[in-house]
Amino acid sequence: MKSHTALAAICTIALLSTASVTTAAFAQTPGTTAQADAGLKTAVANKDRAEAHKVRDAHRHPAETLAFFGIKPNMTVIEIAPGSGYYAEILSPYLKSGGGRYIATGSAMASLSDQAKWGVQSYVPFNATSGPLAPAGSADMVVTFRNIHNWMWQANMLDKAMADFAAALKPGGVLGVEEHRADPRSEKVEGTRSATDGYVSKASIVAAAQRAGLVLEAESEINANPKDSKDHPFGVWTLPPNSWTSPRNQGETPAGFDAAKYKAMGESDRHTLRFRKPA
Q1: How far is CA 35 from CA 57, 87, 176, 210, in A?
Q2: Which among 7, 76, 208, 254 could disulfide-bond with 101, CB atoms 3.0 to 4.6 Å apart, if both were Cys?
């Protein structure tokens, strides 16, 4: 009897220990509604950010998006194709505040040249023939915003991109993706090109990530927009902030085109996906 009692006690302790470890592990994983820390809120509220960027916050929810990805100020973060610097203006000073490191692809952004204000940025090439983004296994996070469709138009580029991201990430590191969402309809295809209107299916993104060994951990509706009908005459670029009024925004505006209709929709409906590199 005593031996059975002792065995039961040992099993109970083991189960409680396992539960504690499991609970701790989940506690370290950001939820779909993770809250931004004070430093991140400060970076978003920074008065020195470009006015053209700040007006987009209502559509892009930068603090909530980065919190969902699990950003911390001491991380090494690589941003792919930062464009005008919308996220760079937030990420670079935020990472500066905690001793982290901001790396971007492409050319240096002149708007962030004041290192006392924005922090230090590093820049690396990224294209079909570029080498590693960073030393293997050195980055805590890679983020990319509304770029996947561009790589789908270049042979093998999406696979190359995902392989580059996976190689740069530490085991347990995160890939954060935001992209124009085609679902529930299919991607538009013209010839050999998919997502020709800029809208990408979740399946395409997940499949490419999986081929690189990355696992979809969570998705969020932070950047959902149910007003987006996804049937615009000039693709996703009909919507703000591009607001095209003709094909490639060149030539005459078609008769009857209602620019106000698309402005009222706001920015596109978007995937917000968090992938992880297995530890």
Answers
A1: 16, 18, 16, 28
A2: 76
Closest-CA residue to 144 (of 183, 87, 195): 87
The pTM score is: 0.89
pLDDT, tens digit (0-9, with 9 covering 90-100), for 81-139: 999 999 999 999 999 999 999 999 999 999 999 999 999 999 999 999 999 999 999 99
Ramachandran assignment for 139, one of left (phi > 0), alpha (psi -120 to 50 degrees), beta (any other): beta
The letter for the amino acid at 227 is K
State both tokens at 36: 């931004």
Give the relative orientation of helices 202-211 and 157-168 as an angle to the nearest 10 degrees: 60
pLDDT at 221 over 60: yes
DSSP structural state of residue 200: B
